Automatic annotation (TrEMBL):
Full protein name: Peroxiredoxin
Signal peptide feature range: none
UniProt-listed InterPro entries: DsrEFH-like, Sulphur_relay_DsrE/F-like
A Pfam cross-reference name: DsrE
């Protein structure tokens, strides 16, 4: 019998100005630990979470620093998608973002949801 892959998509609209960004990545890391295949779709100010050096400015005690949460997430196989119009509206290019971040429209997220992924929003 084929193994069922359980997926989680986390939509993050908050950036470095909100503690919810750290909570989102903490929960996403927990999802990976629980055996889920986790993707994060960043919109609005959430884009700044993956701008090089942007995430270095945030830590919500007692959580790990945001930069570590994001690094751990990506190293453990988590996918990070950045909304194309949101990236463009900030004047960012691919080279402005952390390595491994994919600039894309919402179609990747919608595809995962249509295939049965659970969703969370922050």
């Amino acid at each position: 019998m084929a193994e069922i892959v359980k997926k989680l998509v986390v939509l993050v609209t908050k950036g470095i100005e909100s503690e919810l960004s750290s909570v989102a990545f903490t929960i996403a890391n927990g999802g990976i630990t629980a055996g889920l295949q986790v993707s994060i779709f960043l919109t609005s100010t959430g884009i700044d979470l993956v701008r090089k050096r942007g995430q270095a400015m945030t830590q919500v005690a007692p959580l790990d620093p945001l930069a570590k949460l994001i690094e751990d997430f990506m190293q453990r196989g988590g996918a990070v998608w950045a909304c194309t119009p949101c990236v463009t509206s900030r004047g960012y290019q691919q080279e402005d973002l952390l390595d491994g971040v994919v600039i894309t429209g919402a179609s990747l997220m919608h595809g995962e949801i249509k295939a049965g992924a659970a969703t969370l929003s922050f």
